[in-house]
Amino acid sequence: MGERALAAVRLEDAEEGGRWALYTSQWGGSDPVLGRVFAAPAGGSGPGRAAEPQDRLTALASVSWRPTGTVTGRLVEAVDFLGTSVVYVIAPRVTVWQALWFGFPLAESAPAPTDGVLVRARSIAGIRTRRRRLRQAKRLLSPAVAAGALPPADARRLLVGVLHSRVRVPSTQSGPL
Questions:
Q1: With helix as H, strand as E and coil as C, how does 95-145 read?
Q2: CA nearest 93: which of 175, 8, 169, 25?
Q3: What is the pTM of this model?
Q4: Residue 142, burial from CB neighbour count under 10 angstroms (0-12, 13-18, 19+)
């Protein structure tokens, strides 16, 4: 199975997204790799910050990558959200994006691997939290989609809302509301 990753290297800018060289890795989205990438300097302006792309690229170099071709246009249209955990965008700085698939495999007859979003990732904890929230929301919505009570498109909109919300549910130990 693995924690598949996609590395997208921007080859040139264009009005509609650019041209990208794509590489895949079976284990590029694993916690050890993500930990090394997130531990590299975050970059920005000022002395000592110019080396940031190289630091993160060095962290990614420890992984075996396989070239898969080039695409022109918007990168998000080339992502297989079902088979990809993480997308590394190298343009020229390295940014990490979490691929979240919005399909309902047991409730839809033909879920599309391209139904998803990329969310900027800044930590392993954030990635885990989003995975857990998405899994919980899908578990709640899937029976309604399977029964035909909730159209898949509406369920996807609800998933986006769940990912954007920061609702905290108070416990009985937390005191009065």
A1: EEEEEEECCCCCCCCCCCCCCEEEEEECCHHHHHHHHHHHHHHHHHHHHHH
A2: 8
A3: 0.82
A4: middle
